[in-house]
């Protein structure tokens, strides 16, 4: 789906995000590469909370707390 992620937003009933780190040629560990691109579990959690904040379902303070707790910069 990453190869055709540009085709999906019209067909997805909600917001669409396509995370991935393939093809960037980094020689670091997978964990460090995922953190670099913001697709590790902690970064995805903060991104999901941010999306819920934009929809009015989560308070902004929750996002800040989660980011601080997990060391995610955004």
TrEMBL record:
This is Uncharacterized protein. It comes from the Bacteria. Residues 1-23 are annotated as: Disordered. InterPro entries: Transketo_C/PFOR_II.
């Amino acid at each position: 789906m990453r190869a055709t992620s540009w085709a999906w937003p019209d067909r997805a009933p909600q917001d669409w995000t396509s995370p991935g780190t393939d093809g960037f040629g980094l020689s670091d560990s997978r964990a460090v590469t995922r953190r670099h691109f913001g697709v590790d579990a902690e970064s995805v959690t903060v991104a999901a909370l941010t999306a819920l904040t934009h929809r009015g379902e989560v308070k902004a303070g929750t996002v800040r707390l989660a980011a601080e707790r997990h060391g995610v910069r955004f």
